[in-house]
Amino acid sequence: MMNMIKDQPIRQLLRISTIVMPLLLAGCSGVISASGPGASSIINQQDQMTEEGPKIVGGYEFIELKPATIAQYMRPKSTKLNTAISKPTVPDLRLTPGDVISVMISDSAEDGALFAPLSAGGTTFNKVRLSRNGTISLPYVGIVNLNGLTTTQAEAKIQEQLKKFVTDPQVFLNITGDLGGSVLVAGDVNKPGRFSTLEGPLTILDAVNLAGGPKSEPYLVDVVIRNGRNVTRYNYADLLNGLNHPIAANSEVVVERAKQRFVAMGAVNKPGLHDFPSRNPSLLDVLGTIGGLSDQKANATGVFIFRLSDGTTFDAATNTITAKEKPRVFQLNMKDPTSLFVAQQFLVQPEDAIYVTNAGTYEFQKLIAPIFQVLLLGNSVNNL
């Protein structure tokens, strides 16, 4: 009699589970939490939209990755190394406001000369800074504007001013600090700072190397050049491969991390935002970076790559995503042996999202685990 009473709660739970389980299986996506959509919903809703999410105008293009479709999405072949080298020209240095100069003036050896003779080294005026208007002030010279002049032109102008007081003046001018002609290097470098061009014009690589070089791998670094007229962006790896060239004085060089990254989600071993493992990584490369698919959770037929096209915009007022081209969703069935060859050739692009769906057995395990916990708890209570 007691055994029948003890078995009664278990029988009741089993009856309830047989009723509830089909209902849960039918709507498990709403009952059991998941990290994203299932494979069937991605494939079947390619031309639809979610009720709560933003509408994608025109839907998205679904592409099954296989040998017959991989051609236009393959990794590019390795580019040949460029044999050209940068040969910067040496322009005449021109004085600008903020420059620091030294001026040596010599006079004849006659008694009563205003300046020391050349044989005695002349009279030197050090650390003479050009004002914001480009002017300097020297004894017997007065205020003279040197802005935009070369050193030769500046010497001639000072010499002309001295002829009123000196019989045979000699002038030698040297730039010792070129604030206006320097190059600023900032950002993701080891030693940011301002670097002089007195020893000659700098190339982009010269400037970055003077700043201690970038902190990251070359393909993960972008170099932005501002010269007051335009802005140009280069990948550091391209500069190393022959795109290096001189930069104008008074330019700004900003080194920053390139957006060479992808997102991994779903049934993978290392989900999250990751840097590219190489310049043009394959799908197999990035799967290796994230530790591959999860053995316990992954659906090997449900490996998806989500890619937005360039020029994609979002209108918050209408909750609409608009793009010049349809977004693309690629699917790879990794149970097919040829998928490894396809994955080796497929080019992953910056900002791609790699998503692996859960296997059906894993979803079923998530579903029945709480039911068995309740059954075990009921049995334990019944045995008290």
Mean pLDDT: 80
Category from helices, strands and their pairing: alpha+beta
Count of discrete structural domains: 3
Enumerate the strands of the largest sheet in spatial order, edge to edge or round the barrel. 2-18-15-19-13-14
Helix content: 25-40%
**What percentage of amino acids are in beta strands?**
25-35%
Count the helices. How many? 9
Quickly name the level 1 CATH class of the largest domain: Alpha Beta
Low-confidence stretches: 1-6, 23-33, 47-55
- Find the CATH topology of the largest domain: Outer membrane lipoprotein wza fold like
Question: What this model shows, in words?
Answer:
By secondary structure, the chain is of the alpha+beta class. It folds into 3 domains: 148 residues, Outer membrane lipoprotein wza fold like (Roll), CATH 3.10.560.10; 78 residues, 2-Layer Sandwich (wza like fold); 75 residues, Outer membrane lipoprotein wza domain like (Outer membrane lipoprotein wza fold like), CATH 3.10.560. Helices cover 26% and strands 26% of the residues. It is built from 9 helices and 19 strands. A 6-stranded mixed β-sheet has the order 2-18-15-19-13-14. Helix 1 packs antiparallel against helix 9. The longest helix is centred in the N-terminal third of the chain and has 25 residues. The two termini are 16 Å apart.
